[in-house]
């Protein structure tokens, strides 16, 4: 498995005005992040609006990112859902040879018990051809995968190698870090808690804003990992307003405004999401205009 510590980003899926996947814009997003020294790319995560992509569109996104990346950065693929048997079948049939790990969200809507969550991931671990990053995001799934469940999975299955933790509770994050087995990675799933997680002993982040500010964000993460806390927090505070703004009207509406400002992609999203309001666009643009390069 390639290194998954550091700054990963959950890529957007750019769309044209008529609603098609914007292949050229997606290539530019990938190139921008490679140039900005991001450590790895996450394809078809929540930020990619994967739930509103057809099977053919998902394949198009995968092939586009694979081509644009050209083996430069590790790739993580989102394979998650609330139908365990369907996911098992998908893992057994889809060609994932271009990828280094799987990101799999805890089952949503069904609201399983902790034992149900454990058995779900146990079933995936037994068939997965790749290492698995389990993803806890209670605000979206309706259930919280507790530290004891994550640690139980990590100890039982060698191919469950990390957790993307987006519970928003640093006490829970600290418990995970203190109880995890050796070598198991704790990754922040929230931009605003990325650096606090690293300072507490975590291993990095899978970010949204990082893809729009890759150079600044990757510097923050790496300075934090190297123990240069004061310098890392100087980057954090520069980006803090933007971390909040891009989620104000849902994800990825906000980060797509960032890419529109950068001239890389248009701000279009798919229903039931809608594009950011003019008020939010104005504030995000003001934030981007205020950003200055921080000396290394």
Automatic annotation (TrEMBL):
CDD domains given in the database record: DHDPS (cd00950)
GO molecular function: 4-hydroxy-tetrahydrodipicolinate synthase activity
Pathways per UniProt: Amino-acid biosynthesis; L-lysine biosynthesis via DAP pathway; (S)-tetrahydrodipicolinate from L-aspartate: step 3/4
Keyword Amino-acid biosynthesis tagged: yes
InterPro entries: Aldolase_TIM, DapA, DapA-like, Schiff_base-form_aldolases_AS
Matches recorded under NCBIfam families: dapA
Name of the protein: 4-hydroxy-tetrahydrodipicolinate synthase
Species of provenance: marine sediment metagenome
Phylogenetic placement of the source organism: unclassified sequences, metagenomes, ecological metagenomes
């Amino acid at each position: 498995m390639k290194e998954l510590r550091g700054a990963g980003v959950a890529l957007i899926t750019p769309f044209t005005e008529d609603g098609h996947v914007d292949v050229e814009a997606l290539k530019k997003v990938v190139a921008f992040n490679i140039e900005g020294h991001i450590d790895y790319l996450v394809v078809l995560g929540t930020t990619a609006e994967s739930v509103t992509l057809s099977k053919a569109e998902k394949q198009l996104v995968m092939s586009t990112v694979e081509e644009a990346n050209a083996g430069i950065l590790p790739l993580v693929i989102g394979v998650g859902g609330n139908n365990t048997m369907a996911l098992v079948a998908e893992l057994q049939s889809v060609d994932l040879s271009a990828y280094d790990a799987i990101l799999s969200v805890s089952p949503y809507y069904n609201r399983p018990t902790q034992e149900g969550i454990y058995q779900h991931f146990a079933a995936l671990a037994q068939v997965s051809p790749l290492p698995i990053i389990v993803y806890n995001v209670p605000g979206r799934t309706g259930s919280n995968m507790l530290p004891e469940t994550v640690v139980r999975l990590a100890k039982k299955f060698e191919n469950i190698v990390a957790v993307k933790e987006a519970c928003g509770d640093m006490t829970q994050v600290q418990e995970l870090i203190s109880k995890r087995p050796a070598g198991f990675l704790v990754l922040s799933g929230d931009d605003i808690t990325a650096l606090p997680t690293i300072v507490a002993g975590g291993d990095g982040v899978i970010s949204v804003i990082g893809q729009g500010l890759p150079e600044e964000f990757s510097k923050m993460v790496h300075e934090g990992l190297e123990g240069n806390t004061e310098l890392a927090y100087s980057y954090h505070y520069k980006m803090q307003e933007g971390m909040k703004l891009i989620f104000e009207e849902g994800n990825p509406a906000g980060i797509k405004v960032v890419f529109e400002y950068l001239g890389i992609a248009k701000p279009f999203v798919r229903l039931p999401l809608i594009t950011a309001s003019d008020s939010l666009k104005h504030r995000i643009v003001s934030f981007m205009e205020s950003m200055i390069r921080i000396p290394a």
